[in-house]
Amino acid sequence: MNLHYALIIFFIFIFYSCTSSDPGSADKSSFYETKWILRSLNGNKVYTPESLEEAYIKFSKDKPNAGGFGGCNSFGMTYSRKNKSLKFSNITSTEKYCDFIKDQEKNFLDALTKTDSYRITGSRLSLYSGSKILAVFENTGVK
Question: What residue numbers bound the domain in which 121 lies?
């Protein structure tokens, strides 16, 4: 149970550390400090039960940290980004059990571990492994 509370505190710290005091930067609206909502995973539309929050990822500009929500659990990680290369490491997640969405959430986290590049087109962020699209996110303007 202590591990559960430690993970909750860790994720609260990650999310609050992602908050920027410099709103309005064009660079941030294109990649950083934006709540990227997961729309498709491995070519399939993402299912979000009406009663749950949508899965998303958010990148910090000041630190190489990212965090988000997988549909049932919160997660955090570090990332490295150079040109169009993007790699995630040290992925941690809370361990709440949600039978109805567990496979989709597992596939989402697996896609993050396989990511090696990305592309932003309009309001869409696509994560790739080689030439294969793993996940597509939408920037809905929510920070």
Answer: 2-139
Rounded Cα gap, residues 138 and 45, in angstroms: 12
Report how many domains make up the chain: 1
Instruction: Summarize pLDDT for 34-67 with one digit per residue, the tens.
Output: 999 999 999 999 988 787 899 999 999 999 999 9
Flag whether pLDDT at 14 surpasses 70.
Answer: no
The CATH number given to whatever domain includes residue 29 is 2.40.128.270
SS (H, E, C) the chain: CHHHHHHHHHHHHHHHHCCCCCCCCHHHHHCCCCCEEEEEECCEECCCCCCCCCCEEEECCCCCEEEEECCCCEEEEEEEEECCEEEEEEEEECCCCCCCCHHHHHHHHHHHHHCCEEEEECCEEEEEECCEEEEEEEECCCC
CA dist list (Å): 92 to 31, 69, 88: 22, 11, 11
Tell me how long the chain is.
143
Full-model pTM: 0.77
Both tokens assigned to 97: 């059990």
